[in-house]
C-alpha cells in the first residue's frame, strides 16, 4: 500500500487488492458452506440459523469484500467496487497518477452517518466498562419460563430438564440481563424476575463487555456500517458471533446433543465455572474487535 500525499487516500495496487478480495471470498465460502448446503436441502439448524435469521446480512453480502475508508483501489471501476457507494478517483502518488475507485464519503455520510454516531457512542461506552461475568446464560432459560410447549421457539428440540426443571432453574437464580435484544424475548412471567429492565433507549447505558449478545452484535454493527468497514473485519465479527452462538445454545435449556453439542450445565457449579471461563475469553476477543471497529468509526464521516 502506498500513502498518497494528496487527498488522504492510501493506494492499493490492483494485484494486492484483488488478492485480498480473493482470500476473503475463500474464507467466507468456507464459513458459509454448511449453511448454504442445508438451505439448499431445506434443513433447519437450531444453532447456526440464528446468524442468518436474527441478523439481516445475507451470505452474498458477507462475501462482498470492501477495503474500508480512505483507500483507493488502483484500476478498479467504481461500478465493480460497489455501485453507488464508490466514486471514481485519481490521485498523484509519489509523482505518478493513480486511477481507480474509493469509498464515496459524501454518499456514505448521507446514508450511514447517523448509524456511525450511534455505533461509536455505544461501542465506546461498552469498551470503558468492566465485564460482568455472572449471568450464566439465563436469558435463554427466561425465554421459555412457564411457556406452553407449543410456544417454545425451538419446539423441535427437547428441553434438557423438561419444562418443570427449566422453571426451577429460573426460580433458583438471580437474573440480571442487561441486553435489551435478549430481554425483549423473555416471557411475561420472566420479565419481573430480571434485576434490570433494559429498553432500547437505555442500551448505551447498560450494554457491557461480558454480555454474549452485546459481543455477538459486533457483527451487526460491522455490517450496518458496510461498505465502510473492511471485509476482513466484518468476517472476524461474524466468526465471533458464530462461536458465541454455540456457547449461548450449549448453555441454554435445550438438549442439542443430537446436533453434536454437549451441554454446558449452568445449573451446576462446574457448569457455571465453564461458562464463566468461556465468557471471559469471548469478552477479551470481543474487546479487540470492538477497538478495531471504533478505529474505523473514527475514520468514517458521521451525520
Estimate nothing, just give the exact number of structural domains: 1
Low-confidence stretches: 2-6
Strand order of the largest sheet: 1-2-3-5-4
Helix content: 40-55%
- If you compute it from the alpha carbons, what radius of gyration comes out, rounded to the nearest whole angstrom? 22 Å
Q: Average pLDDT, to the nearest integer? A: 93
What general form does the structure show? Answer: elongated
Sheet of most strands:
5 strands, mixed
Structural class label: alpha+beta
Separation, N- and C-terminal Cα atoms = 29 Å
- What's the helix-strand series? EEHHHEEEHHHHHHHHH
User: Please, how many helices?
Assistant: 12
Query: How many runs of DSSP E, i.e. beta strands?
Result: 5
Please report which band the strand proportion falls in: under 5%, 5-15%, 15-25%, 25-35%, 35-45% or over 45%: 5-15%
Describe the structure.
With 303 residues, the chain is an alpha+beta fold. The chain has one domain. Helices cover 48% and strands 8% of the residues. The chain has twelve helices and five strands. It has a five-stranded mixed β-sheet. A hairpin with a 6-residue loop joins β1 and β2. α1 packs parallel to α11. The protein is elongated and about 75 Å long. The N terminus is likely disordered.
Amino acid at each position: 500500500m502506498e500513502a498518497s500525499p494528496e487527498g488522504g487516500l492510501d493506494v492499493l495496487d490492483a494485484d494486492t487488492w484483488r488478492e485480498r478480495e480473493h482470500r476473503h471470498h475463500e474464507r467466507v465460502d468456507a464459513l458459509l458452506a454448511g449453511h448454504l448446503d442445508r438451505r439448499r436441502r431445506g434443513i433447519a439448524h437450531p444453532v447456526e440459523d440464528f446468524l442468518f435469521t436474527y441478523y439481516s446480512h445475507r451470505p452474498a453480502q458477507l462475501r462482498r469484500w470492501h477495503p474500508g475508508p480512505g483507500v483507493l483501489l488502483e484500476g478498479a471501476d467504481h461500478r465493480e467496487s460497489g455501485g453507488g457507494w464508490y466514486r471514481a478517483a485519481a490521485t498523484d502518488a509519489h509523482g505518478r497518477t493513480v486511477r481507480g475507485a474509493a469509498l464515496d464519503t459524501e454518499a456514505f455520510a448521507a446514508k450511514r452517518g447517523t448509524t456511525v454516531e450511534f455505533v461509536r457512542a455505544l461501542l465506546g461506552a461498552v469498551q470503558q466498562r468492566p465485564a460482568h461475568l455472572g449471568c450464566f446464560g439465563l436469558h435463554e432459560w427466561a425465554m421459555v419460563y412457564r411457556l406452553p410447549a407449543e410456544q417454545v421457539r425451538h419446539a423441535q428440540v427437547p428441553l434438557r430438564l423438561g419444562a418443570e426443571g427449566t422453571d426451577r432453574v429460573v426460580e433458583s437464580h438471580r437474573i440480571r440481563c442487561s441486553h435489551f435484544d435478549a430481554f425483549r424475548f423473555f416471557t411475561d412471567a420472566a420479565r419481573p424476575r430480571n434485576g434490570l429492565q433494559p429498553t432500547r433507549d437505555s442500551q448505551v447505558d447498560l450494554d457491557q463487555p461480558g454480555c454474549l449478545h452485546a459481543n455477538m452484535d459486533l457483527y451487526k454493527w460491522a455490517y450496518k456500517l458496510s461498505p465502510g468497514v473492511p471485509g476482513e473485519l466484518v468476517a472476524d465479527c461474524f466468526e465471533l458471533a458464530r462461536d458465541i452462538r454455540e456457547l449461548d445454545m450449549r448453555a441454554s435449556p435445550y438438549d442439542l446433543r443430537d446436533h453434536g453439542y454437549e451441554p454446558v450445565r449452568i445449573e451446576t457449579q462446574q457448569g457455571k465455572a465453564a461458562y464463566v471461563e468461556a465468557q471471559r475469553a469471548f469478552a477479551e476477543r470481543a474487546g479487540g474487535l470492538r477497538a478495531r471497529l471504533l478505529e474505523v468509526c473514527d475514520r468514517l464521516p458521521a451525520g
